[in-house]
Amino acid sequence: MEKQNVLITGATSGIGKATAELLANNGFNLILCGRRQERLQALKDGLGKNTNVHILKFDVRDRDAVFQAISSLPKEFSKIDVLINNAGNAHGLDPIDRGSMDDWDAMLDINVKGLLYMSKAVLPQMVERESGHIINIGSTAGKEVYPKGNVYCASKHAVDAINQGMRIDLNEHGIRVGAVNPGLVETEFSDVRFKGDTQRAETVYTGYQPLKPNDIADIIHFVITRPYHVNIADLVVMPTAQASSTIIKKEL
Ligand code: NDP
Ligand code: 8X3
Fold it and tell me: pTM of the prediction?
């Protein structure tokens, strides 16, 4: 069978990177996206030994760059079988009255509008073929709201709504759409949220066993390898130590 092409946004770190590594070893061609060119190149150099890898450097906030990137794909990568909308982050953790408007813009522009731009750029070919698979990386923050999570939670609630809306609207075209919604995963997520304060970031993942990026990569691999009539529509996964955004069994 012909190898499928999988496009992953946010492939330079965390969940996206682990997914790229797993899929490279399991018979998928990869289109890897992010803003950090040196990390993209390192992934291509490493994973390119196992599979065909194409890298695209752009910011998902930049609408024109998104469309240019997709239209620049060489022929062998131009058919996208699976789109993994993973790029995103939290920026800040502040009460709503003290939040930074730059942080709000970043979260809504990247997590919501970036996901929409990517989907808009890729969907026409899926609609034309009447096949394809979109996986939206949501969050438990898209299922509940926690103190100071306000705008990040809003962005992930939007991903939840868009995931449902896409599934409804694309149903007639036979396209699979589903979300994977993780709880706490130890990645660069908290470094970004706390703007490089690594000590504060580390406290988010200490005293219990958080999920690792590989745990989510395993799930994504499972989701995309189901027979085509099976669509995992919405999946929530947390560390065993986590019961909700605020209830975490820590041994300190
Ligand atoms: P990381 O910070 O490790 O990775 C984030 C990725 O997103 C990086 O590859 C980064 O690449 C990319 N990215 C960020 N902003 C942009 C942008 N403007 N344009 C293009 N790419 C961008 O975090 P995670 O792996 O944890 O996060 C991945 C997804 O998982 C996010 O959507 C996040 O909300 C979600 N998530 C994370 C959880 C966690 O606890 N870690 C839990 C639930 C969901 P680069 O900087 O090179 O552009
Ligand atoms: C990331 C999980 O709880 O830090 O989406 O918001 S949380």
Answer: 0.98
Instruction: Tell how far the Cα of 172 is from the centroid of ligand 1, in angstroms.
Output: 31
| Structure tokens that stand for 196 in this block | 């490089």
State whether residue 109 is helix, strand or coil.
Answer: helix
Structure token pair of residue 164 = 């449902």
Alpha carbons 245 and 243: distance in angstroms, whole number:
7
Q: What is the distance in A from the centroid of ligand 2 to the CA of 144? A: 10
Residue range 58-113, pLDDT digits in tens: 999 999 999 999 999 999 999 999 999 999 999 999 999 999 999 999 999 999 99
Give the angle 184-190-192 at the CA atoms, nearest 5°: 140
Cross-strand pairs, 54:
31
Residue nearest to atom 36 of ligand 1 (CA): 139
**Amino acid (1-letter code) at residue 244:** S
**Rounded-to-integer distance, Cα 71 and Cα 159, Å:** 25
Could you give the CA distance from residue 173 to residue 176 in angstroms, rounded to a whole number? 9
Give dist(CA 179, CA 65) in Å, integer.
25
Where does the chain have alpha helices with state H? 14-24, 37-47, 63-71, 75-78, 101-107, 115-129, 150-170, 189-193, 198-204, 213-224
Q: Note the pLDDT tens digit of each residue in 148-202.
A: 999 999 999 999 999 999 999 999 999 999 999 999 999 999 999 999 999 999 9
Is residue 9 a contact partner of residue 58, using CB atoms and an 8 Å limit? no
